[in-house]
Inverse folding.
């Protein structure tokens, strides 16, 4: 069976949840390997027909290790059927939920030497009860400024699973 490598740069777990959904959509066509990008120093690129990287935004930035991984594996990424998506809370708003409308995707395209043909952006989730005090207060502050949920007892998932399914189909067709 063909293999797909699903890499994530995630902190709270919504990126992994999205990748697991994509993995289930690919079942039957691909054997998927889901790996934390930060824990995978070497990739045997010949093993995989496709590669997907999902990364979360944290306080306005993608993890620097993601960019390092891309730089270290640029030629392989360019020679592989590969795609990228990012996850952030801003994408909960219409117009900010597309690669063209997302400030984070624009920033990624500006900073990354890798420019995959297939890119997308998905809204993440708020998990207030799971956050440490500092993160909870900071995220509440950001959400208050942007008109989002601020109740520290709530968990809210903003991910549009129909868009994730559509992306899965486009990734399969790569």
């Amino acid at each position: 069976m063909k293999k797909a490598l699903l890499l994530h740069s995630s902190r709270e777990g919504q990126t992994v949840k999205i990748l697991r959904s994509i993995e289930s959509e690919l079942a039957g066509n691909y054997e998927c390997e889901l790996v934390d990008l930060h824990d995978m120093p070497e990739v045997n690129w010949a093993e995989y027909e496709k590669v997907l990287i999902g990364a979360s935004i944290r306080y306005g930035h993608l993890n620097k290790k993601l960019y390092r991984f891309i730089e270290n594996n640029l030629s392989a990424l360019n020679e592989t059927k590969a795609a990228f998506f990012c996850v952030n809370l801003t994408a909960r708003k219409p117009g900010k939920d597309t690669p063209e409308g997302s400030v984070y995707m624009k920033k990624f395209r500006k900073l990354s030497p890798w420019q995959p043909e297939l890119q997308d952006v998905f809204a993440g989730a708020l998990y207030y009860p799971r956050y440490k005090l500092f993160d909870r207060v900071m995220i509440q502050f950001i959400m208050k400024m942007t008109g989002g949920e601020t109740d520290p007892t709530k968990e809210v998932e903003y991910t549009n699973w129909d868009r994730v399914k559509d992306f899965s189909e486009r990734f399969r067709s790569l």
